[in-house]
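Table S2 (text version). Query chain:
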Amino acid sequence: MRGVDYQFPERMGTGDLGAALELTRVASWNQLKEDWEAFMELGRLRCAKEPGGRIVATIGLLPLGRTITWISLVLVLPEHRGRGLASRMMHWAVERAREEGWTAMLDATEAGSHVYRKIGFKTTDRLCRCVLDGVGESAFPGKKENLFPMTAGDVTEAAAWEQSRCGLERRDLMASWLRGGKVRGWLTRDAGGRISGFSLSRPGHKFPHLGPVHAENPESFRGQIQRHLAVRPGPLLMDLTARGLKEARETWEKDLRVEREFLRMGLGGRLPSIPEGQYAIAGPEFG
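Corresponding structure-token output:
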């Protein structure tokens, strides 16, 4: 394998979906075809190919507003690891972010974080990937009366509300999710009709993924999850913030399985942090 002359960066298109899904399956990730398609539509996907033309590695940049881009889908087939591909791809991503004036953000495992620290990335938050098994109605003392189904007509309002809180602009991404009808969303509104929280869940290869989840209080957080479990009985995959993990542990105890911890990292001056009322993120690939 030494001395392989990889072709990188190569643009990815719909004809590469099969190879992309092979990479996520080998890595045991949760992405579906629709997740890759969202990146192809809204972001920049690049791949490395071996001389025969086979895709052996990928990386994606997903702009979330004018100032922030998310680096994700960094995947390398096992037999091609240790050849400098991941470093080469990260160099490309960081350079593109600098050219565009974007702050680069990513989510990394503790074990892999040293690679990003060498480049200059700093930790902003700690997160935890968890699986919530299906639980009964009695296990949810959550508040549900002010919850409303999220529709495509709510996307602009919800995205603007979220951006004002955490700096991420996901209007186009949320519209893409809701367009296909497979993603479910719930909104909470205050007495004046203004948004006070929302949550989204989407299908996944292993389990449905719940996130982001914004809630005004723990009771609202529990109520939102109840709504999602009514449609997707579980298990549910959640990438929880510190506040979300604390509440989930106190509420569901034995029904919650902690898979691993990971770090949110950023490269730049003013790095956005997760707001107090966010209980779960959208996932490492979507911020």
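Notes on Table S2: The mean pLDDT is 92. The CA atoms of residues 110 and 262 lie 6 Å apart.
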